Amino acid sequence: MIQLDLNHAHLKENVKDYQEQVVSIDKQLVSKTCLGNDFIGWMTWANDYDREEFARIKECAKKIRENSEVFVVCGIGGSYLGARAAIEMINGLYADKKPEIIYMGNTFSSSYIAQVMDYIKDKEVVVNVISKSGTTTETALAFRILKQFMEEKYGDEAKNRIIATTDKARGTLKTLATKEGYETFVIPDDIGGRFSVITPVGLLPIAVAGIDIDELMKGLHDGMGEYGDPDLDKNPAYRYAVARRILQNEGYDVELFVNYEPQMQMVAEWWKQLFGESEGKDGKGILPDSVCFSTDLHSLGQFVQEGKKVLFETNLYVDKPMIDVTFPNDEANEDGMNYLAGKSVDWANKMAAQGTLMAHEETGGVPNILLTMPDMSAYSFGNMCMFFFKAIAMTTLMNDSNPFNQPGVEVYKKNMFKLLGKE
Ligand SMILES: O=P(O)(O)OC[C@H]1O[C@](O)(CO)[C@@H](O)[C@@H]1O
């Protein structure tokens, strides 16, 4: 369970004053009468998911682990961020695991695409193309290149090495997958892209990375209870939602998501899409940004400490590191570092976090929200998903906005299609 500490947030209003509004919005969520109510399948997904499909995901992942060196995840936004966040958080950045997971379909960069294609050309490859709409251009462009490569490399066998995760009935990708005979997994109608890491969208790549998806679903399931109570005293996700609302009332328009683990950086990217696409509409919302400390204390730290007071920080601390290291002694001590000899490096990381909190809160006057997760396990990932899902749904509905659509994303697409000459 994620622990929440608001003692460093210096809220000028009382969280409990929002209890009535929270109860009323929670009722709308539970009874599926809120804005965007056709996209709240994630609320009960941990109970409702298709057990047969789940077993097929595990089987498919096992096969892929046996017959590939590289697994290419071809998708963008919610169709890759969650999987990448989970894989990097749980396995670490330099996991010696096969197959290697590579991401495509998330850019128009020709340099990137060409480099990936060159890197995979002599390796055994399996491709998972993921798109809920089945029409996203970045993904479709990359997939055509991948498809031709796979057909040239494997001939008829290519179709057994391409897996499509898409809508059950609609979209170009669904039509193509059916025609080609690809194995297909379904993205449920009532779960939007940025909530879809808990569906086959995330689960297949995560399972291919050797991660226990039963554990992930267990964390998600437990989160339904732990973040399910409308009583603010009993629900840290809703308290976090209200604290964000209060801070925005005070004029803080930027939320800086802080973590101290480089393997959590993609969690921050995933969180940015989840919060930004959900809340940033109707001329409202908090701009979600992120930093990885202490690394970024040496870049953005200066701004946080002394720059314009536009932001608050939300720290996601990890209680137990994946691996700890004991700092070595050195007789000569020429670098003067012996004061740390025999100490845990994770302890040093936590001291850096404590010192930073004091600096930013006390001297810098920056409100800080503290979240702590127990570890970087699959269970904790699933649990964290439910925490942030519930929080952003609540906080956006408190703004009278629909948390589950993203109409603003279409504007660039229209312009781009015109420029590209699409009919
Ligand atoms: O899965 P799709 O339909 O390809 O969409 C990918 C991403 O693009 C968006 O629709 C924005 O264009 C996101 O909401 C979504 O996660």
From TrEMBL:
Keywords: Coiled coil, Cytoplasm, Gluconeogenesis, Glycolysis, Isomerase. It catalyses: alpha-D-glucose 6-phosphate = beta-D-fructose 6-phosphate. It is found in: Cytoplasm. InterPro entries: G6P_Isomerase, Phosphoglucose_isomerase_CS, SIS_dom, SIS_dom_sf, SIS_PGI_1, SIS_PGI_2. One of its GO terms (molecular function) is monosaccharide binding. Catalyzes the reversible isomerization of glucose-6-phosphate to fructose-6-phosphate. This is Glucose-6-phosphate isomerase. It comes from Faecalitalea cylindroides. The gene is pgi.
